[in-house]
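DATA SHEET
Item: assembly model
Revision: 1
Owner: S.N.
Input lines:
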Amino acid sequence: MEEIDPSFKQKVCDIVAAIPKGKVMSYGQIASLAGSPQAAKIVGGIAHQGDPSLPWQRVVKADGSLAAGYPGGISGHQSALEDEGVEIDETGRVNMKELRWHPPISGQSSLL
DNA sequence: ATGTTGACCGACT
DNA sequence: GAGTCGGCCAACA
């Protein structure tokens, strides 16, 4: 059963749509899950043109800083995250150590 | 089919 | 801790 291999954009959209409220992911991490660890920029490009219904506000940069091209800028992105329950640091960065989320692993309950 | 761009990432200073 | 440089990959015109 080979899993179908949808376009990179399709996978990224699926991953972003799976981010729970109050959590955040870095572009590089999403890119890696999508199949290309070095295609973080592509994720951003998809965010700009891709589906506007997805919670891109939960997507931040690798160091926890907010996205630059978000509609409204860092300030708009910060407000959106705070509305989700995410706290922003003085430097304008989120606590990735606590808010970084990764998708569930297959066979998690069966293996243990 | 080719070239350019991009909501980035990692390492160095 | 903050700023700078190059690179890498896929989508778009």
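QC remark: The beta strands of chain A are 25-26, 59-60.
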